[in-house]
Write a structure and sequence with these properties.
Distance between the termini: 39 Å
Order of helices and strands: EHEEEEEHHEEEEHEEHHHEHHEEEHHEH
Radius of gyration: 27 Å
Structural class: alpha+beta
Bound molecules: 4-amino-1,4-dioxobutan-2-aminium adenosine-5'-monophosphate, magnesium ion
Shape: globular
Largest sheet: 8 strands, mixed
CATH architecture of the largest domain: 2-Layer Sandwich
Number of strands: 17
Oligomer: single chain
CATH topology of the largest domain: BirA Bifunctional Protein, domain 2
Low-confidence stretches: none
Mean pLDDT: 96
CATH superfamily of the largest domain: Bira Bifunctional Protein, Domain 2
Length: 466
């Protein structure tokens, strides 16, 4: 008896007529007049369930098999045979079907064998992994994460685990969640009535990180090629289909590199990850193609084959101004590009991914390198057809005097950033990096409409459970 995953049972890696044991959860049961039940069992290892053929000669046929409903957990033993039915390669002719757990009240079990709306499934985030959709998203998420680590490893990068609790606002945008052990009802106060943070756990104010970039820059200026891949948190009150309060971010950082090197890295990186998912998650991608968004696989294939177009921000504004298309927001130099602008550039203007470079300094973060024109910084956004910005990055300001000027402009106090300033005082070098929101990547690859379906347990304004 060989215990096998459904994936192995279906993919031909187990010889026909082998005695196998498969374990999983019932998707559907169908009974034939001839006294045979066909039970589809999924264990999540692959998209398809396996069909278990259970004859009425089983001793518990009436007591158990005929009571099976969606969601019941079973252990099935029998012979793996080539299937006669169409749509599946192999099936199990069962000698034994053991039920580990029935479903209390099958009529109210939330995951019925029918198509549920994604909105409804968000209400049952603990059960939605049992659906086709969330099984597929979970496998794609895993495969993409593996490919990301593999890509960087093959390119000689080191993965650095940057802290989740931090004192510095890496983006300087004031969107941090506070971490505190103080009594929120009656916090200790100073003589002047202000909250006395010196009584807090860390003896000062602490927050959840919005980005690992500043910390990873320190490692970059020693190990040359590094990246972070971890959770980040933003208290932006945007109740949208593109924002999460907790999301995962990938942030590579390269030393002795400029903005062009950064754009080249982003291009190689995205293509590598897309290729891995197309190759390794073919059945899941087929499902997304059919059920989420037609053309999603072709979009990725085209992406892999295209070379990225590079456009200066200033030129992009001119292109947008000349465009025949009516935009909701008029493009204007000095303002950030809206998604409609980004999509126009990538989809209609060039028809492939675009890297927009050198944005006005006033709309970009304090750590970005000032260009010689004194008006723009060496920032880049990678715009993907069908979504718009997918990656944001920059060459970093490696000159201390310029960094200080920019921090001053942003109203940031140098005291909180002394360690970051040190990197510019001790052996500073040109360096660059970018950030990719992992869930935005999942949304793009799977053709999802809402980022809340790209992470197992979404945290958004008003979130209350799980
Ligand atoms: O553009 P952002 O704010 O850049 C940074 O954080 C830099 N430190 C990156 C770097 O250069 N190392 O965020 C980077 C990416 C965005 O392009 C987007 O994909 C994602 O993070 N992102 C979010 N994803 C989900 N929910 C949110 N609220 C997000 N905010 C940003
Ligand atoms: Mg950005």
């Amino acid at each position: 008896m060989q215990v096998v995953s459904v994936k192995k049972a279906l993919d031909g890696s187990v010889a026909p007529d082998t005695k196998v044991e498969v374990r999983g959860w019932v998707r559907t049961r169908r009974d034939s007049k001839a006294g045979i039940s066909f039970v589809n069992v999924s264990d999540g290892s692959t998209f398809d369930p396996i069909q278990v053929v259970a004859p009425n000669t089983l001793s518990n046929y009436e007591a158990d098999v005929l009571r099976l409903t969606a969601g019941c957990s079973v252990v099935c033993r029998g012979t793996l045979v080539k299937s006669q039915g169409k749509g599946q390669s192999f099936e199990v002719q069962a000698d034994e079907v053991r039920v580990l757990g029935f479903v209390d009240d099958p009529d109210t079990y939330p995951i019925q064998p029918k198509q549920h709306s994604l909105e409804f499934l968000r209400e049952v985030a603990h059960l939605r992994p049992r659906t086709n959709t969330f099984g597929a998203i979970t496998r794609v998420r895993h495969t993409a994460a593996q490919a990301i680590h593999r890509f960087f490893h093959e390119e000689g990068f080191f993965w650095v685990n940057t802290p989740i609790i931090t004192a510095s606002d890496a983006e300087g945008a004031g969107q941090m969640f506070r971490v505190s052990t103080l009594d929120t009802v009656n916090p200790p106060r100073t003589d002047t009535g202000k909250i006395d943070w010196s009584k807090d756990f860390f003896g000062k104010e602490a927050y959840l990180t919005v980005s690992g970039q500043l910390n990873v820059e320190a490692y970059c200026l020693a190990l040359s090629k590094v990246y972070t891949f971890g959770p980040t948190f933003r208290a932006e009150n945007s109740n949208t289909t593109r924002h999460l309060a907790e999301f995962w971010m990938i942030e590579p950082e390269i030393a002795f590199a400029d903005l062009n090197d950064d754009a080249n890295l982003a291009e190689r990186f995205l293509k590598y990850v897309f290729q891995a998912v197309l190759t390794e998650c073919a059945p899941d991608m087929k499902f997304f193609e059919e059920r989420q968004q037609k053309g999603v696989t072709e979009r990725l294939e085209k992406f892999i084959q295209s070379s990225f177009e590079r456009i200066d921000y200033t030129d992009a504004i001119e292109i947008l101004k000349k465009a025949k298309k009516k935009f909701e927001y008029a493009p204007e130099w000095g303002k950030d590009l809206q998604t409609e602008h980004e999509r126009y550039l990538a989809e209609e203007h060039v028809g492939r991914p675009v890297v927009v470079m050198n944005y006005p300094e006033q709309i970009k973060a304090f750590y970005m390198r000032m260009n010689d024109d004194g008006k723009t910084v060496a920032a880049m956004d990678v715009l993907a057809p069908g979504i718009g910005e997918i990656i944001g990055g920059s060459q970093r300001e490696e000159r201390l005097d310029r960094l200080d000027e920019r921090m001053k402009k942003f109203g940031l106090h140098p005291e909180g950033y002394q360690w970051f300033r040190d990197l510019r005082r001790y052996g500073s070098v040109p360096h660059a990096g970018f950030g990719l929101g992992f869930e935005r990547l999942i949304v793009y690859m799977c053709g999802l409409q809402n980022i809340r379906d790209a992470i197992p347990y979404p945290r958004v304004p008003g979130w209350a459970q799980f």
